[in-house]
Amino acid sequence: MTTFVLVPGAWKGSWAFEAVVPLLERAGHTVHALTLTGLRPDDDNATVASANLDTHADDVLRLFDRAHITSATLVGHSYAGMVIAAAADRAGDRVSRLVHLDAFVPRDGESWWSSTNQHFRDLFATGAAATGYGVLPPAGGDPRRRPHPLASVMQSIRLTGGYARVPRREFIYCSGWEDRTPFVGLRTRLQADPEWQVHELATAHNAMREAPEAVAALLLDEPMANASAHSEEAGNAGGCGGDPRPTPPE
After folding, report:
1. Given 52, 128, 210, 243, which residue has the most CB atoms within 10 angstroms?
2. Which sequence spans correspond to the domains of the chain?
3. What is the pLDDT of residues 134-187, one digit of tens each?
4. CATH architecture of residue range(s) 3-236
């Protein structure tokens, strides 16, 4: 059986995967969904201000140590693509598979800030204006969202080669928000790289909420035809209770 470690993007906690976790567990797998430092309900302002990308990578590595994880499928959504890359680079041989779920796939020296587009840099700058260290979530979304540590999206990643040695690396491109996604160029880059598998889901950014069955199907290595069918069913059912409003990369 597989051990899945699920890492949410900006503003969110482990609850972001609440519709996917039971599907993986029902298939007999072990699942750990993380809430990163600075995004826990009881984190104070000092914790939010001091958390950066290294802090978040360490969150993942501490879970590996605590749960005695020796072979993980590490999944990161959006901003958390930065986190899982940094963690995998430092994890030795404890990561067997990486899945970047509509997520950034950084090269050494890049940051979330340098990798996204100007629209979302402006969005985050506006969100951080009140405090200078915590990015407020856009209005109208899930009330459980928390201010995201600005330092984590500004810090450049340092990759030493461990990340590139993970045996299996995958990118899931969500094609349902192409007017805003910062991942078009990334998809093209990875499609040309024989070391990467690239999948596509016809959802907006928050695929875990809009089409959890399709996300689970990809994580469980079910045929893409099944994943597509799950995605269509989710869309026809109103996105499994999802919010139809556009969502930014987190």
Report:
1. 210
2. 3-236
3. 999 999 999 999 999 999 999 999 999 999 999 999 999 999 999 999 999 999
4. 3-Layer(aba) Sandwich (3.40)
The Cα–Cα gap between 153 and 162 comes to 21
DSSP calls for the chain: -PEEEEE--TT--GGGGTTTHHHHHHTT-EEEE---TT-STT--HHHHHH--HHHHHHHHHHHHHHHT-SSEEEEEETTHHHHHHHHHHHSTT-EEEEEEES---PPTT--HHHHS-HHHHHHHHHHHTTTSSEEPPPTTS-TT--PEEHHHHHSPP---STGGG-SEEEEEEE-TTTTT-S-HHHHHHHHT-TTEEEEEESS-S-HHHH-HHHHHHHHTT--HHHHHHHHHHHHHTTSTT---S-----
